[in-house]
Amino acid sequence: MQSESKVGVLYIVGTPIGNLEDMTFRSVRILQSVDIIAAEDTRHTGKLLKHFQINTPQLSYHEHNRNSRIPEILNQLQNGIAIALVTDAGVPGISDPGYELVKACVEAGITVVPIPGAVAAITALSASGLATEKFVFEGFLSAKSKQRRSHLELLKSEERTLIFYESPHRLRSTLEEMREIFGGDRQIVLARELTKIYEEFWRGTITGACNYYEQKVPIGEYTLVVAGNTPTQRQFSQAELIEKLETIMNQGISPSQASRQLAASTCLPRRELYQLALTLRNSDSQMPDT
User: What's the pLDDT at 60?
Assistant: First the structure.
């Protein structure tokens, strides 16, 4: 009986974003053991392979040849070939065409195995000093000003921390548009040369960043970490709060429930509203009958 052919595996291999010491033992082992390495830039990856004495043959896979390469790579995988996908720096599929190959493999029932590595967005966020519990990665903004501005307008009210990638020749324009749309007082962190010798973090307001880069020529790829929007909390006078509490309590609702309800709608501390509600109730109970 003829044995069923074995289907290959696509490995998504993270590589260093700068410092070669960030290469993991597992990444080296996988790149040594697969049959082919699909690389965004074979010359760039070739330097990495030489450093770690990896002799696996390469196949180019990038933005301009992906349509022809995907069927070719799928065919090889379906014939039992093990392939590792790498990008120039970081994890494949993050702001590069790796996503489309992974999607095609998933749809074809081919096993996809991620091999973790460094990502510039997370690396910058972790050292930014801005909120990390919730964030949004937006990648590269459009090279065209109109589309870029429209994108930023959609993010104007976003309360989560925002992360962008930007090229040096568009950095000044992007910062100016962020100042106009997000406001100059919004906090921003600009990270460049991450994990390299000249790693640099600039922290301050968007206006401060605009002023800084008017005097300094941007060099290298940037990761921008921008603070989320902080909604302006409306200020209520005590008279307004008393009126609102009276309206609620006149419906037969207790001071505790009324304060909880009003706190939810105004974002004010429930304890303070509860004390005001108790004062209001005591005042009503002490009024003489007429």
Answer: 97
Q: At what angle do helices 255-266 and 238-249 cross, to 10 degrees?
A: 130
Q: Which two tokens stand for residue 201?
A: 């973090």
Query: Class assignment of domain 130-226?
Result: alpha beta
- What is the C-alpha separation between 116 and 14, in angstroms, rounded? 5
Sheet holding 200-205, edge to edge: 135-140, 161-166, 222-226, 187-192, 200-205
Please check whether residue 222 is in contact with residue 258, taking contact to mean a CB–CB distance below 8 angstroms.
Answer: no
What is the rounded distance in angstroms from the CA atom of residue 145 to the CA atom of residue 159? 23
Among the residues of 42-193, which ranges form H helices? 42-51, 66-78, 98-107, 120-126, 145-155, 171-182
Report d(CA 157, CA 70) in Å as an integer.
39
Which CATH number applies to 9-118?
Answer: 3.40.1010.10
* Residues ≥6 apart with Cβ < 8 Å to 73: 10, 38, 59, 61, 83, 101
Q: Quick one: pLDDT band at residue 239, thresholds 50, 70, 90? A: confident
Cα 91 from Cα 95, distance rounded (Å)? 9
Look up tokens 């008017």; give the residue: 214
Tokens of 9: 């595996």
Please enumerate in sequence order all residues whose Cβ is within 8 A of that of 105, keeping only pairs 6 or more positions apart, or say none.
10, 74, 77, 111, 112
Looking up tokens 């330097």 gives 47
Helix, strand, coil in percent for the chain, rounding step 5: 45, 20, 40
d(CA 18, CA 44): 12
Q: Is the sign of the CA dihedral 127, 131, 132, 136 positive or negative?
A: negative
| CA nearest neighbour of 273 among 250, 251, 249 | 249
| pLDDT of the residue at 232 | 66
Record the pTM: 0.77
Phi, psi of 143 (to 5 degrees): -75, -15
